[in-house]
């Protein structure tokens, strides 16, 4: 890369600045659109590997919609289907869509994923979720398709 000239003078500082700027431009051009370090599918695989069991989207659906003997289910705050923004059951704060096809930022930051699974599982189960429970829920969430949105289940009379 040619050095910039300042008044006909070649300075090391200017050359370094140009190189750093070019390197940063390359890094940002190659960076993914989101700031995450992972994907929902990678998270699912991580937990499936940790559990040693194959994932089950059906077990994930049942887990997500069940109350597990408590007051809340995952669906209490994230909705069923979890494809639109909802409000937290007790705080009223907005929660964006959980299904990755409807919210590409979901499950893309390992630290956040671990934090929220720990917090939400404690709220719903009064314990942390197991690796297989996390993998199963993600298997179910990954089945949602933004091009073919699901309909909310009808209330039974």
UniProtKB/TrEMBL annotation:
The keyword Heme applies. GO terms for molecular function: electron transfer activity; heme binding; metal ion binding. SUPFAM superfamilies: Cytochrome c. Residues 1-35 form the signal peptide. PROSITE patterns: CYTC. Keywords: Heme, Iron, Metal-binding, Signal. Pfam families: DUF1924 (PF09086). Residues 55-145 form the Cytochrome c domain. Transmembrane segments: none annotated. This is Cytochrome C.
């Amino acid at each position: 890369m040619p050095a910039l000239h300042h008044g006909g003078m070649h300075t090391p500082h200017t050359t370094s600045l140009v190189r750093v700027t070019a390197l940063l431009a390359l890094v940002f051009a190659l960076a993914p659109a989101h700031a995450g370090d992972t994907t929902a599918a990678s998270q699912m695989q991580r937990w499936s590997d940790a559990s040693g069991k194959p994932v089950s989207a059906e077990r994930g659906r049942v887990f997500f919609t069940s109350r597990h003997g408590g007051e809340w289910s995952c669906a209490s705050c994230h909705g069923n289907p979890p494809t639109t923004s909802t409000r937290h059951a007790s705080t009223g704060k907005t929660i964006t869509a959980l299904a990755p096809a409807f919210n590409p930022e979901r499950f893309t930051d390992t630290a956040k994923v671990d934090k929220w699974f720990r917090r939400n599982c404690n709220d719903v189960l009064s314990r942390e979720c197991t690796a297989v429970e996390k993998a199963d829920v993600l298997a179910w969430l990954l089945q949602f398709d933004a091009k073919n949105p699901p309909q909310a289940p009808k209330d039974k009379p």
